[in-house]
Write a structure and sequence with these properties.
The chain is an alpha/beta fold. The chain is built from 14 helices and 13 strands. Helix 4 crosses helix 11 and helix 5 runs parallel beside helix 6. Bound molecules: pyridoxal-5'-phosphate (PLP). The site of pyridoxal-5'-phosphate has 12 residues, from helix 5 and helix 6.
């Protein structure tokens, strides 16, 4: 049976139209020089080879041109963030004026909540998914306190039904029907970092708007992973980091989406800086802030070139591969993994990620029934790079741009050898 899956992995790799992209990335190796089975793109995406070239170009321009690089570098620094816009917009299904790259993710969540969380006496709550990424929770809690409300009543985490790990769209509908008029803001992950569940952005946005709520998404685990249509799905805002599925390096800058319907909402409160000021008159250095239309109007500072360069390199790869193709391969990979996992009858784990392809991205979360981190370490010894999330989950994310079906096959084979013997 194992041989059947070996042949199937070979066949799927042979048919894979994206297989050539693997060679555009550096694949980590163990001390014997063997390529690792890297399944951790949900945490830190691998480095594109051309990132080095692109960064060296900027360093060379800086050394040769000094301040003149703002206008005369090969990619002039002054409008540098604009070089990312078109590809980033395409990647998340947005209009160019709806996206901008700036700051880091938690910073952007705060800046967006300044504009989009406007609590009143009767409508002051923020709805989150159960057990959100801690940073999101801290940010939300502090925003609630900042407005003088009490997180105990204003922060609502929707729990999965008992015995399940999934928060269903029906459950959200139910909740909004009962309590929706107290919710100021719905802020969910596009894909939950722990369970790997993908939410129905369009339907949740529609229901949230019907209930009179503002709807935002943290797409840290969804951008570069799902095939997103942010403009058509219509959430008010979204933010994501670019170091997970977008392969732009540790701590990479974050992406922001503000829906077109808000692009001229200059009445909204916002924290301002000179890079959000109308760029045509920015250098008149006048005292009155004139915000730019669209997402760019939320910028504060001039673009950090050396941090933006890796994003430019990475987005070019996505543009060449096509996020739609990536998503198709991603579903094939997780389906292949699930099928082989089930057939191998691997003991000691349950997969808590929904089985339906539309309810998951690249990631599958393996919950260890008797949590024991030393067992995870046996996988590390077998040259698998994955991650362990307390208290009991191993997250596995085959990434379509650089993982092969053979990586998936090897992973399940090792799991079966280590846990079924
Ligand atoms: C990765 C991740 C973060 C990390 O935030 P930073 O500000 O980039 O450090 C925050 N929220 C979610 C949901 C994440 O997955």
């Amino acid at each position: 049976m194992e041989h059947t899956y070996f042949l199937k992995a070979q066949e799927l790799d042979a048919k894979d139209i994206l297989s050539g992209f693997r060679s555009e990335f550096h694949i980590p190796k163990n001390e014997n020089g063997e390529e690792s089975i890297y399944l951790c793109g949900n945490s830190l995406g691998l480095m594109p080879k051309k990132t080095t070239v692109y960064i060296n170009e900027e360093l060379a321009d800086w050394s040769k041109l000094g301040v003149e690089g703002h206008l005369h570098a090969k990619h002039p620094w002054m409008p540098y963030h604009e070089f990312l816009t078109e590809n980033m917009a395409e990647l998340v299904g947005a209009l160019p004026k709806e996206v901008v790259v700036m700051n880091s993710l938690t910073v952007n969540l705060h800046l967006l909540m300044v504009s989009f969380y406007r609590p009143t006496k009767s409508r002051f709550k923020i709805l989150l998914e159960y057990s959100p990424f801690p940073s999101d929770r801290y940010a939300v809690e502090s925003q609630i306190l900042f407005h003088g409300f009490d997180p105990k009543t204003a922060l609502v985490e929707l729990k999965p039904l008992s015995g399940t790990y999934e928060i269903t769209t029906e459950q959200i509908a139910e909740y909004l029907k009962e309590e929706g008029d107290e919710i100021a803001l719905i802020l969910l992950g596009g894909v939950n970092y722990y369970t790997g569940q993908a939410y129905d952005i369009r339907e949740i946005t529609r229901m949230g708007h019907n209930a009179g709520c503002v709807v935002g998404f943290d797409l840290a685990h969804a951008a570069g992973n799902l095939y997103l249509s942010l403009h058509d799905d219509g959430p008010d805002f979204a933010a994501w980091c670019n170091y997970k599925y977008i392969n732009s390096g540790p701590g990479a800058l974050s992406g922001v989406f503000v829906h077109e319907r808000h692009s001229k909402r200059f009445d909204m409160p916002r924290f301002s800086g000179w890079w959000g000021h109308d760029k045509n008159i920015r250098f008149k250095m006048e005292n009155t802030f004139v915000p730019m239309e669209g997402a760019e109007g939320w910028q504060l500072s001039n673009p950090p070139i050396l941090s933006m360069t890796p994003i430019r390199a990475s987005l070019e790869i996505f543009s060449a591969a096509g996020i739609k193709n990536c998503r198709i391969k991603s579903v094939q990979m997780t389906s292949f993994l699930l099928e082989m996992f089930d057939h191998s009858a691997i003991k000691g784990f349950e997969i808590i990620t929904p089985r339906e392809p539309e309810k998951r991205g690249c990631q599958l979360s393996f919950r260890m029934i008797k949590p024991d981190k030393t067992l995870f370490n046996t996988l590390v010894k077998r040259n698998i790079i994955a991650d362990w999330r307390e208290p009991d989950v191993i997250r596995i994310a085959p990434v379509p741009l650089y993982n092969s079906f053979m990586d998936v096959y090897r992973f399940v084979k090792i799991l079966s050898e280590e846990f079924n013997s």
